[in-house]
From TrEMBL:
This is Isochorismate synthase. It comes from Arenibacter nanhaiticus. InterPro entries: ADC_synthase (IPR005801), Chorismate_C (IPR015890). It comes from the Bacteria. Gene3D superfamilies: Anthranilate synthase.
């Protein structure tokens, strides 16, 4: 069944028609949406229904894949650990001097009080012998707790990823989001000891979300901060939930995206710094993607004493969006891997560089490790 599912995706790719296949975190079902024409559709007001793929720069319109055909299949998850190895590219240090200089420039802006935090990234170009579908299969095997996907549009390109970060989930008026910041390399199974820098970075993101949504939601609840593992890395996570007020989904998403976890603070100044200094176009890296306004119609019998059973109908409108992290872009035989890290007052440039190297290992392992 799953191999037939992959064959259907391969056929859509070979014909050059838009598609997305994906699996939600900790679920066993892999879903696919196939669009029956090659038109490039865009989201206008977030009242549309389909699969959204949005860039980092919120001034650009998100792409919408129409739900013309929908398939789902159970993924045969293997109950065994895959060997974890550290893989780095021979080209990984080519832009080191530039990246370190950019971090120093960001730290100067922070010292002057212009910025509180800025997330600086880079891209790594590698060759691979694996096909996109082999890579997607490897992502599913390796990262059962991440949102794994393969996305294609002939006018945009081919992207894959396994992101640990949710941007927003809604069910009718209920919403849930998270702040995910701070990074530590996993050593063994024990959780890490967090430094002041990571704790402050996490606090900034949580405070931003609370302030951004304060006048747009009600009954807001903020959880305790916990450590979560994503592959070979640990992060700090705080959940935020509540009820959406009188505003629409567009206002909620605009308030959140891009979050300080992928951009910085203040948001607009950090975004301007990134666009002016990173020296490349992030495109859809650190954008967001996922299901937009999917309707779920449930009918179930409701037993009543001394009456015939009646059918109860519940209609749910669901949205599930994820930040496009731990992703790569496919360009013929070349693959672009995107990695970054948050720069704050306590950042050490050489340590930040090492963090991007550890993050690049997530996708390099998937591309080159024969066990995946």
């Amino acid at each position: 069944m799953f191999l037939n599912f992959l064959d259907r995706i391969k056929d859509q790719l070979e014909k050059g028609y838009p598609l997305v296949a994906y699996r939600h975190p900790k679920e066993v079902t892999v879903k696919a949406i196939f669009q029956k024409d090659k038109e490039l559709y865009f989201v206008e007001d977030f009242r549309e229904s389909g699969f959204v793929f949005a860039p980092f720069d919120g001034e650009q319109s998100p792409v919408l894949l129409k739900k013309d055909e929908f398939l789902s299949v159970a993924y045969p998850q293997e109950n065994k650990l895959l060997n974890e190895t550290t893989i780095f590219s021979e080209f990984d240090d080519l832009d080191k001097d530039f990246h370190l200089q950019m971090i120093e420039k960001g730290l100067d802006e922070i010292a002057e009080g212009t910025l509180d935090k800025v997330v600086l990234s880079r891209k790594l170009e590698v060759d691979t012998v694996k096909t996109p579908l082999e890579t997607f299969h490897a992502l599913l095997r390796k990262y059962p707790s991440a949102f794994c996907y393969i996305w294609y549009h002939p006018s945009v390109g081919l992207w894959l990823g396994a992101t640990p970060e949710m941007l927003l989930q809604t069910e009718n008026k209920r919403f849930k989001t998270m702040s995910l910041a701070g990074t530590k390399l996993a050593v063994g199974e024990q959780g890490p000891q967090w430094d002041k820098k990571e704790l402050e970075e996490q606090g900034m993101v949580t405070e931003f979300i609370e302030a951004a949504l304060a006048d747009k939601v009600t009954s807001m609840t903020v959880s305790d901060t916990t450590a979560v593992r994503a592959g070979n890395l640990w992060h700090l996570k705080t959940s935020v939930s509540g009820l959406i007020g009188s505003c629409g989904l567009k206002e909620i998403i605009s308030a959140l995206h891009p979050t300080p976890a992928v951009c910085g603070l203040p948001k607009l100044k950090a975004k301007t710094f990134i666009l002016n200094n990173e020296n490349y176009n992030r495109e859809y890296y650190t954008g967001f993607l996922g299901e937009l306004n999917f309707r779920e119609d449930q009918r179930r019998p409701q037993p009543r004493r001394n009456q015939e059973n009646r059918v109860y109908r519940t209609v749910k409108n669901k949205t599930a969006l994820y930040v496009n992290l731990r992703c790569l872009q496919w360009q013929d035989k070349k693959v672009m891997i995107y990695v970054g890290g948050g720069i704050t007052n306590g950042s050490v440039p050489e340590d930040e560089w090492k963090e991007t190297k550890h993050k690049s290992g997530t996708m390099l392992n998937v591309l080159f490790n024969k066990n995946y």
